[in-house]
Amino acid sequence: MNMHEEYKQKLVSAEQAATLVRSGDWIDYGWCVGTPVAIDKALAKRMPELSDVKIRGGVLVRKPAIFEIENPAEHFCWNSWHLGGWERKAVSEGFGFFNPMRYAELPRFYREDNIEKPAVAFLQVAPMDEHGYFNFGPQASHLAAMCASAGKVVVEVNQNQPVCLGGYQNAIHISDVDYIVEGENDPMQELGAGAPPTEVDREVARLIVEQIPNGACLQLGIGGMPNTVGSMIAASDLKDLGVHTEMYVDAFVDLYDAGKITNLKKPFDKGREVYAFAAGTKKLYDHLNNNPGCMSVPVDYTNDPYVIGQIDNFISINNAVDMDLFGQVNAESAGPKQISGTGGQLDFVLGAYLSKGGKSFICMSSSFEAKTGERKSRIRATLTPGSIVSDPRSAIHYLVTEYGMVNLKGVTNWQRAERIISIAHPDFRDELIQEAEKMHIWRKSNKR
């Protein structure tokens, strides 16, 4: 049987694919912009007759149809590897939950039976090529491991899904697919860059860009500050930069278009921008589509600290929600309320410090305005009860606010408290010093 005959034999409707799900099953729903659409709608119609279905996914960029059924918690629960806005709402409504992880380890979870094998894996892919492969699009991430562990694999073809070239595990062959659904060919879901940069964003970005040498290799996190850093690099005199990142975002396209990225100074993957998944605007998907200069690979490669550490002058830039005077960083929760996930931040914080000349930067505004209108400090004596420690104090390298940059490596707790307070908002420094004194991490000789 040739692959075209096999394609016809495996072709089913979205409604037929939805009948594969049974009560009590664990199923997987792809990842980010690879979440199914037509199958999701069909499963939403069938879900009221099911119970105790457990669905895994993450970084949703659109609201799934299954979220809109009546009383979803009576029929299924959503289990997210990384929360976006739709998933936070699912948590608040009682049918969403968070799966803690270090993102680099996710493929291994599937391979080594750390988690329940999915009865069915549903995922959106690009059309089959002349060799019988369905490209995963901009989310190699952990999908090959997920598919290999699944009882059944159902791909939903989207003609608009970009073909993202790579080194390995960026596609699945028709022989490893159980069923094929030809989807609705919706346009790619776009993820905007957010609000325009503030003066605080620009000042933090300025401090970081001054620390980046020519030939550096970049990882940018999600958010206004990393995006602002990208914009400033694009307008700078820096050259010969490389990309090795978890998430590929629009800022990298801007850097490439500005001629800043060559990827020629890396010891391996020369000439290629390396990433595990991507989401952004149409210009990003157009840039990635069939681009041999971009390399879509599994997250256990992009986020491996030992791989990162082999790249000289590796620069990692990530956001934080808040931190304490011990140097513990929370980048994912508001107290006990989960708002995103650990993702790969810790992987890159560790990997960048292993790199010769490498630096990791945790950046944040020194304060924020609460809903009450009250200004509050992001630097706290101790983290709010229930807050998640995304990065332990022992891992932090550089901390940056609009009031400066400090290096926290190798310093004792009284030095650490002094340095952190020195870049806190001035309105809160005296109060933080008093708290440091109570906790016995402040010396009389410390600067005030």
From TrEMBL:
The UniProt entry, under Pfam families, shows: AcetylCoA_hyd_C, AcetylCoA_hydro
* UniProtKB keywords: Fatty acid metabolism, Lipid metabolism, Transferase
Cite the Acetyl-CoA hydrolase/transferase N-terminal domain residue spans from the record. Answer: 3-185
Q: Name one GO biological process term.
A: acetate metabolic process
Q: Which SUPFAM superfamilies match?
A: NagB/RpiA/CoA transferase-like (SSF100950)
> Which InterPro entries does this entry report, sorted A to Z?
AcetylCoA_hyd_C, AcetylCoA_hyd_C_sf, ActCoA_hydro, ActCoA_hydro_N, Butryl-CoA_acetate_CoA_Tfrase, NagB/RpiA_transferase-like
Q: What class of enzyme is it?
A: transferase
Positions with a binding annotation for CoA? 221-225, 321, 344
Residue ranges annotated for the Acetyl-CoA hydrolase/transferase C-terminal domain, each copy included: 280-436
List the EC numbers from the record.
2.8.3.-
Coiled-coil portions: none
State the superkingdom.
Bacteria
UniProt record similarity statement:
Belongs to the acetyl-CoA hydrolase/transferase family. Butyryl-CoA CoA-transferase subfamily.
Database matches in NCBIfam families = butyr_acet_CoA
Tell me, what does this protein do in biology?
Coenzyme A-transferase that converts butyryl-CoA to butyrate.
Q: What is this protein called?
A: Butyryl-CoA:acetate CoA-transferase
